[in-house]
Amino acid sequence: MLRASSLFSLYLALAISLSDRAASADDFESFVKPLLTKRCAKCHGKDESNAEIDFDSVSSTEQFLKKPKLIEQMIEVISANDMPPKSEPELGEVTRSKLLAALKTSLRSATSGATNKRPGIRRLNRFQYNNAVRDLFRLNRDVFSLPEKLMTRRDNYITREKMPDSVNVASLSLRPAPGLSGVRSFPKDLRASHGFDNQANQLTLSPLLLDAFLRLSVSIVESPDFSQQTVGIWNEFFKEPSTDADRKKEIRSRLARFLKLAFRGPVQNTTLDRYAAYVSAKLDQSVPWTDVMKKVASATLSSPKFLYRSSSGDAADAQFELASNLSFFLWTSGPDEALLSLAEKGELADPKVLNETVERMFADPKIERFLDTFPAQWMQLENVLAATPDPQKYHHFSFDKSYPASLQMLIEPLLLFDAVFVEDRPIVELIAPEFSYQSEFLKTWYTSDLKSPVIDTQKIVEQNRQNDARRKELTAALEKSRGEFAALIDPVKKKILGTRQKDEAKKTPLDLKPFAAWEFDGNLKDSVGSLDLNPHGKIEYENGMVVLKRAYLLSKKLPVELKAKSLEVSFTIPNLDQRGGGLIGIQGPGDFFDTIVIGERQPRHWISGSNGFSRTLDFPESTPEDKTNQLLHLTMVYQEDGTTTLYRNGKPYGKPFRKGQATFPKNNASVIFGLRHLPAGGNRHLNVSIDKARFYNRALTEAEVQAAFSGENTFITEQQLLTALTEDQKSKRTSTLKTIRESEKALNNVPANQDPRKLQEDSKRNFDNGMRNKLRAQTFQRVAATDARYGGVITNAAVMSMTSGPKRTHPIARGAWIIEVIFNDPPPPPPNDVPPLNEEQTSKKLTIREKFAQHRENPDCAGCHSRLDPLGFAMENFDITGRWRDRYENGRDVDSAGRLMRKHNFGGVVDFKNALVKEERRFAKAFTAHLLRFALARELSPADSLTVESIVDNSAAESHRLRVLIRAVVLSEAFRGSLE
């Protein structure tokens, strides 16, 4: 491109000479030529032809008009106010307008009669190939993985008139959904400048790639996923016709329709004959119909007529080429039958029909493919996936390797583009919209400091001190109350037991003849060593009690088979810690079990069973006395009819319930009998004494159960105790129990002490886990643009991140992105002999702007930097991940002020965006040029710039709405005329 600084003197001379004259091509002889000789020869003459331009060689209007590219460049630079240089007076608006009119007239004359350049022959790119194959077979899935599809929509909103307020979308680019099993794609296509991957000069076909296409076509039809369930045309193409069908006619009918769609146009009879003859020959060889048609389909996919798009130059093919170009532009696939039908009738090129066709294509779900390709490539959003900000400074960007923040960031501008398309909004809203779509992650990213809440250490320490003091106070009160309770109750109990023992001594105890699979009775110390112990726990004998610490006792085998037997259990719970709990039970084969549980915190017990039945029973009448040096007897009695009865302290508790046969087969049973914490992590060990445990060789009757407890039973019922107490003792007992309960409740309610360091670690971990969950979220909500700094395709985290380095922002990269994407005026590459900015040799106290000021002192750099720097530094308040900052790490304030197009001063990014809105026409022109280039799949020529001007002029009355611009591109002579 011609450098703006090299043309300044020329444009200034032209402006002065032509300021009061009507612009025309003939002005060159009268005004331009003398000015070139007088004012520009020193820079653009034969002695010094800067930018390889020698105006001395341009001596006539004819020679000037033979240089349309030069004229186009002059128009671009003048339109952008890149001339005159700051050292020269600026052009007046009237003079500037006349000059542009003269140059546009010259360009129109220079390109008059020139035929539109046709794209060369080019193959389908990956996205086009996938969609063309998918549409041809009406597949219900992609052919292969497509990482270039940056956003996957979970909701079907593209064909609506308004975007919903909440949408479900995700970026699967790093883990794309698989296609057909066993199908591997060909390599990813190269991107041309501006990021488009559909440009004809890039879509070549090497021998190696041709071989890949051949193998690909075979793998598609041979995939196990390629079946009647996934292929929509299976019955009409691959399924064998009925036996009474005319085989020859059926073959030609099926092939004619299939090949017409595959080759995107009419099929010559010789081609159809060749395919039909192949099918007939294979069928005559007894090859199954489906296998033959798969081979035909594979051959079709590897045919040049399918793989390539080209212009034949034949007027008869023009309509079909228009249909193909239109479908690949908007649907990224081949034309459907309706498009081919209009082309066959010769009606498609008619502007009215073409406009109606575009509306139909807008309403088709396949329009989503346009939104999958153009916006992402126009904004070059794929680059954000390569962003690698320093993880030490920007922890949350990539702390989850599977879900980097970039996957959430790139969705925001894409959803905005979706909304502008769906709602047919003016394209200037892409720069400064009234809304955006953000996830919870993005909301947090933009508005939070991304730090977990800070724990107040001093407050925690003080609270722990208060908790300790309170626990000490309550424990002392509780022990005092328990001592008073024992002093009151114990003498009464001894008196009752003494009387009972005298009475029972006169009776003969009932011998129930226990079956000693193993038996505990009385002192258990001698029995401990003979029991099998689960290796995960520990068993000890302490102070006359068997103590199990996180363990249970296990007997793996029984000497005989037990059916419908009874288990008698009694135990004492001396001062059981309220955080603990106990379990005593038996475990049979399979899922049979019965369990008696001592509940924690409340004196509650229950029994549960399995074998297809389970039930829970509470003991609401239990009291704290049951947990305070009391003996509790529980017996489970299994009857031969399959019922089970629970006895509590010698009396039935609840009704018998049926749970199936209780069986303990010989040599095949696991019998668990023991105690363990419920839940794990209670008190250090359980002080529960097992007083008796025995199996009986037959089921007990109710009388036998009661008799078993009548002799050696030491349990005193509540009623017996109350009968023995005086009224004063009862009153004192009640008040003491109340005090105990209140103290226990208060003690339980004292919060446990907290570790400040652990709390801070937990806070950070919880925050990070919350961010991870937000990274995986797929809901984006429409939010009003309450902060003008954010929103739009420029000031979003994706663009800011992808135009930064790992350590710092890159204003030049950001400026280059603006000038290329927003203004469509990319700068030339930097000279090879210009050294890069050496930041190591610059002071750390300098801002980035100050460091580049030194770099710009090189005259070879000044020209481009004068254009790029103001654009890049306008966004310098955004750090390398798109988060706002007012100062650099060295404490210096960020300076984002500048001047746009040498006429809009701005103090920051909000003013900068407002200035861009004021230059709506320039943005519309740039955007339309991108759109036309994408539609034509080729580089634009000088003549195309006039097409762009015309589209922008004609769409101004409709505020350059997106769909209006797309229609205008399709209806333009550049798009339609390239095929005439």
Features:
980 residues, alpha+beta, Jelly Rolls, six-stranded antiparallel β-sheet
Description:
This protein is of the alpha+beta class and 980 residues long. Among the domains are: 4-111, no CATH class; 512-710, Jelly Rolls, CATH 2.60.120.200. The protein is built from 33 helices and 24 strands. Strands 6-21-12-16-17-18 form a six-stranded antiparallel β-sheet. A four-stranded antiparallel β-sheet has the order 2-3-22-5. A hairpin with a 4-residue loop joins strand 16 and strand 17 (643-648). The protein is flat and about 140 Å long. The protein starts with a helix and ends with a helix. The relative contact order is 0.10. Residues 1-25, 512-539, 541-559, 569-581, 599-615, 619-631 and 669-691 have low confidence and may be disordered.
Overview in brief:
This protein is of the alpha+beta class. Helix content is 43%, strand content 12%.
Helical proportion? Answer: 40-55%
In terms of structural class, how would the helical and strand content be classed?
A: alpha+beta
Q: How many DSSP helices?
A: 33
What quaternary form is this? single chain
- Are there runs of 5+ residues with pLDDT below 50, and where? 1-25, 512-539, 541-559, 569-581, 599-615, 619-631, 669-691
Strand order in the sheet with the most strands: 6-21-12-16-17-18
- Mean pLDDT across residues: 79
Ends: how far apart? 31 Å
**Percent of residues in β-strands:** 5-15%
Largest sheet: 6 strands, antiparallel
Assigned CATH class of the domain at 512-710: Mainly Beta
Q: Shape, please?
A: flat
Radius of gyration: 44 Å
